[in-house]
Structure formats: C-alpha cells, structure tokens
Design brief:
Agglutinin, subunit A; Hepatocyte Growth Factor; 36 strands; disulfide bond; binds 2-acetamido-2-deoxy-beta-D-glucopyranose; 6-stranded antiparallel β-sheet; 3 helices; Bulb-type lectin domain-containing protein; mainly beta
C-alpha cells in the first residue's frame, strides 16, 4: 500500500466517524433544522431528511431521500405545495398548545403538520429506519406505532416504501393515496394518483384526474388478479389487510438490506416497482403498469375480454356477441346471445385465467362457500357473476358482482374461477358442441405438448439455447 492510498483510507475513515458522531436522527422542541445546516439521518444511515431543490428548480423543499443511494431519490416531500423561495427555511416543533411541526420562512408558517392527538409537553421529531418521520412523546418507545402524534407515512407522496400503508384507516377516515409529482422539477401533486377504492370487494385503482386509468383487480388472498408490480417476488412479500378498522396494501422486504419501492412516474404515466442495484448503481425497473393496451381501463366495454395476442384485441366472452355490428367497432362491448330468464333456471358458465371484472358494484361474505354463493347470486336478478373471495386452499368466501361486467382481460396467471350468469337456453344449446370442442382442444394440446417437448429436447441436445414455454389456457366448462 502506498502512502497516498493509506492517507485516502484514513481520510475516509475519519469522515465516516465524523458523520457517525455528528449525525442526529431526531430533534426536540428547542432544536431546529435549518436550510444549509444539519440534516436528520436515521440510526441505520439509510434515510436522510433535509432541505433540497428538485431538478432544475431553485425552490427549497424539506424532503426525505435514501442517504446510501448516490442517485438522489426523494421519497417524501413535506411542503409539496408551498415551496420556500430562498434559503431561510427552518423546520421545528412548536409545542405551545398541542404540538405541531412547522416550517417557517421569515416568520411566516409555510407548512405545518398537526397532531390529531393530545401531546405531552416534551415531544421529539424523529426519522426512523423505515423512512417514517414521526412526532412522538419523548417518553414513549420509538417504535410504538399507536403512540405517534403525527407520521409522514400517513401522507404519502409519489413513493410507497416498505411498511407504508396504501389505503384507509376506517376509524378516522384517513386515506393514504399516492400521487405523482407534477413534473421532475415540481413535487406538488400531479393528476396521476393511486389508492384503494372503498367498495364491497375493494380494489386498487389508478386515476388520471378523476378518471379511472388502471385497475389492479380484486384481491384473491394471494395477489390481485391483474397486477404484476404489486405481486410477490423474490425481493418483497405483500399483504392486503381488510378488516373493520383498516383497509390497505403494504409490502415488506425479504432481504432487509435491499432497497425496493413503488413509484408513480409522471413522465411515463406508469406505476413502477424499482429496486436498487449495487452492481449497476442504478434503479432497476422490476415491473410496471399499465403494461399493454389491455390494461387501459374498460377498453373492451361490457362483457368484452381483452386478449393482447388476438385480433381484434377485444373478444366477446363465451355466450355473448358484439353489441355493435360495425367492423372492429368494439367500444360498445358485447350483449348476450340469449336473454336471461331471471329465474332459478338461469345457470352459470365457469371462466378462468381472467383479470376479474370491476367490483365497484359488488358484495362479499367471508364465510359463505361457493354453493351458497351461487344460490345468493341466483336470488338477485342484478347479480351477474360470482366467485370465491379467497382462492387459498380449496377456496372460500363469496364475491358477487351486480350489473354489467367490465374491464376484463385475459390473464393466464390468475387461476381464480369466475362464474357468469347465463340463461338456461344458452347452457342447453351449448352442451352438445361444447363436448366436441373440449375433445378437440385436449387432443390439439396433447399433440402440441409432445411437439414442444420434442423440440425442447432437440434444442437442449444441440445446445442452441433455451426456449420458454408459455402456459396459456382458457377453460370454460359447464357448471350445473
Ligand atoms: C419569496 O416569497 C415571499 C413570500 O411569499 C415574497 O414576499 C418574496 O417576494 C419572494 N421572493 C422572491 C425573490 O421571489
Ligand atoms: C405556536 O403555537 C401557538 C399556539 O398554537 C401559536 O400562537 C404560535 O403562533 C405558534 N408559533 C409558531 C412559530 O408557529
Ligand atoms: C421578512 O419579512 C419582512 C416583513 O414581512 C420583510 O420586511 C423582510 O424584507 C423579509 N425578509 C426577507 C429576507 O425576505
Ligand atoms: C391544523 O391546524 C390549522 C391551524 O392551526 C387548523 O386550521 C386545522 O384545522 C388543523 N388541522 C387538523 C387536522 O387538526
Ligand atoms: C420516470 O421515468 C423516467 C424515465 O425512465 C426517469 O428518468 C425518472 O427518474 C422517473 N421518475 C420517477 C419519479 O421515478
Ligand atoms: C324462462 O325459462 C322457461 C323454461 O326454459 C321458459 O318456459 C320461459 O318462457 C322463460 N321465460 C323467459 C322470460 O325467458
Ligand atoms: C355471511 O354468511 C354467513 C353464512 O351464510 C352468515 O351467517 C352471515 O350472516 C353472512 N354475513 C353477512 C354480513 O351477510
Ligand atoms: C340485489 O342486489 C342489489 C345490490 O346489492 C340490491 O340493491 C337489491 O335490493 C337486491 N335485490 C334483491 C331482490 O335482493
């Protein structure tokens, strides 16, 4: 080792100890954070809070970013709407009366975070290892969730961090929704948002302004029936909590040392899952939605099934025909071949490998079984479909849909069965030819399977590379 590199390492070590010794993760009532002064750093050094200017803007904001990531990645902004136009900003606690975090510019309050709870006189503002900025009683333990007087996780910006909740506190009515920045230079809320809609069978939606833009599909106990980016993978495990008190989506890191986030990207109108790569020193886009044309909300109309690989891309579900006769005009959706009878004589056709229809008009019961669910649906003339609520094990719970079924997409990853109401006559006429179709499909599949396996063996023998087998099935059998 030469003298230069020895000096360099010593310097780095010194710098490290300096940072370690002087970094603080919290301030009390008598302290403040000034623009250009100290920052808050979480105990594990992962997150940092301070003043910053986004993109080419000169405005000053208080934000939280990953300290360990060299590409400045701001995950939360306090004064999104009220930037400070000079460097006189100060963040501090005002503990006169009930404690409030205030941001001041020249004696004017620019931003404040009210506590909804009565606080004691001694409070601290602390940046936790999770990236959550919390205001809490000095005496309470740092990680007691309920003891926070205020927390930044309740007011998300464009980024969902691990452990953050996307959705509702049903007791207080607080909704936590993601909203994109207006532009890379302006963190104020853009028109691109994502949240959980309160309805019989709750779903996550993305909106562009007040218009629905993308739907993740109902939760089936394991995943959402139409979204790759909110799914389990080797990096994250997810959870959807739906009880009397709370309704939210959240995810956790399998390997706590990794960085993985969900971001609303205004530049591309995408919701992306990004994971930090140590090797490339960049954020990898693991997945994103919308992915394709079929992800556009309601693109095929009622009872239309959007199939990316088909032409036309909108097909009518079995038992339905195009409403409009115009060539390739599928915007009107589909209508029944045979009108419903609206009696106990109606039946159901089973569909699977679908992103289940929009559940805005729906009803659920967690303890009913599939047969009780069928009976419940038949009883109500506006019920058009039913399914299990939870597909784990042999499936349980009941979800039923009222009115026209929309925003359906072929999704070969979803094994959930959906039973769609049909008139008795539709079921009757289909029985004959259907059996033949099943036989033909099975035979074709078997032959294709043999060919593919043969091809695969040939390929691997000759070592020309791999092929990927895409499992793609559409199964529709009679349910009687
Ligand atoms: C900054 O904002 C303050 C308060 O809104 C205003 O009075 C002042 O003129 C602004 N200064 C500049 C340089 O824009
Ligand atoms: C602190 O709070 C008190 C009582 O709510 C208020 O009168 C005062 O103006 C506040 N001070 C600042 C600097 O916000
Ligand atoms: C602070 O505010 C006062 C009164 O509003 C104003 O006279 C003064 O110029 C401001 N100072 C700065 C540095 O903006
Ligand atoms: C926050 O404080 C402001 C000003 O003191 C008040 O008008 C507002 O109602 C408070 N909000 C909540 C949620 O307490
Ligand atoms: C959005 O995507 C663009 C292009 O990939 C990227 O440069 C930008 O950083 C992304 N924005 C966010 C907020 O992730
Ligand atoms: C309902 O079905 C029964 C038996 O198939 C038939 O007799 C009756 O006409 C049907 N009613 C309607 C309104 O379609
Ligand atoms: C759900 O179904 C069970 C079993 O049929 C029934 O006892 C219960 O009352 C239902 N709950 C609701 C809210 O309808
Ligand atoms: C059918 O369900 C709808 C929606 O929940 C409800 O408004 C209607 O009263 C029900 N009809 C019957 C006959 O139960």
């Amino acid at each position: 080792m030469d003298i230069l590199s020895f000096l360099l390492i010593s310097l780095k070590l010194l710098f490290f100890f300096y940072e370690f010794a002087f970094a603080i993760d919290s301030i009390s009532s008598s302290e403040s954070i000034r623009d250009g002064g100290t920052t808050l750093v979480s105990v594990d050094g992962r997150f940092e809070l301070g003043f910053f200017s986004p993109g080419s803007s000169k405005n000053r904001y208080v934000g939280i970013w990953y300290k360990k990531v060299p590409v400045k990645t701001v995950v939360w902004v306090a004064n999104r709407i009220n930037p400070i136009n000079d460097s006189s900003g100060v963040l501090m606690i005002n503990s006169t009366g009930s404690p409030v975090v205030v941001m001041m510019q020249n004696k004017t309050v620019v931003w404040s975070a009210n506590s909804t709870k009565e606080g004691k006189s001694s409070v601290v503002l602390q940046l936790l290892n999770s990236g959550n900025l919390v205001l809490r009683d000095e005496q309470s333990s740092g990680d007691r969730f309920s003891s926070y007087l205020w927390q930044s996780f309740d007011y998300p910006c464009d980024t969902l961090l691990p452990e953050m909740k996307l959705g509702w506190d049903l007791k207080t009515g607080l909704e936590r929704r993601l909203s994109s920045w207006k532009s890379p230079d302006d963190p104020s809320p853009g028109d691109f948002t994502c949240g959980v809609e309160l309805q019989g069978n709750p779903e996550i939606f993305m909106w562009k302004g007040s218009n629905k833009f993308y739907r993740d599909g109902p939760w089936n106990g394991i995943t959402f029936s139409g979204s790759p980016d909110l799914s389990h993978n080797s990096i994250v495990e997810l959870n959807f909590v739906n009880n009397e008190d709370e309704l939210f989506y959240t995810f956790n890191l399998v390997d706590k040392s990794m960085f993985s986030i969900i971001v609303m990207n205004i530049t591309r109108y995408l919701r992306e899952r990004l994971t930090w790569s140590e090797t490339t020193q960049n954020w990898n886009v693991d997945s994103y939605v919308p992915r394709d044309y079929c992800d556009s909300y309601g693109v095929c109309g009622a009872y239309g099934n959007c199939i990316t690989t088909q032409s036309p891309i909108c097909q009518c579900l079995e038992g339905f025909k195009p409403k409009s006769t115009g060539y390739r005009d599928w915007s009107e959706g589909c209508v029944r071949n045979k009108a419903l009878n609206y009696s106990k004589l109606d039946g159901f056709i089973k569909f699977n490998r679908l992103k289940l229809p929009e559940a805005t008009n729906s009803w659920v019961n967690k303890s009913m079984n599939l047969e009780q669910c069928r009976v419940k649906c038949l009883e109500n003339s506006s019920c058009m479909a039913y399914s299990n609520l939870d597909i784990r094990g042999r499936g349980n719970g009941c979800a039923i849909w009222f009115g026209e079924l929309i925003d359906i997409k072929q999704n070969s990853n979803n094994v959930q069965d959906l039973f769609i109401r049909m008139s008795a006559s539709e079921l009757g006429t289909k029985e004959g030819p259907k059996m033949k179709i099943v036989v033909i499909v099975t035979t074709t599949a078997a032959v294709a399977g043999v060919l593919l396996v043969g091809y695969y063996i040939y390929k691997s023998r000759t070592n020309l590379g791999n092929i990927t087998l895409f499992a793609f099935t559409k199964q529709s059998t009679l349910d009687q």
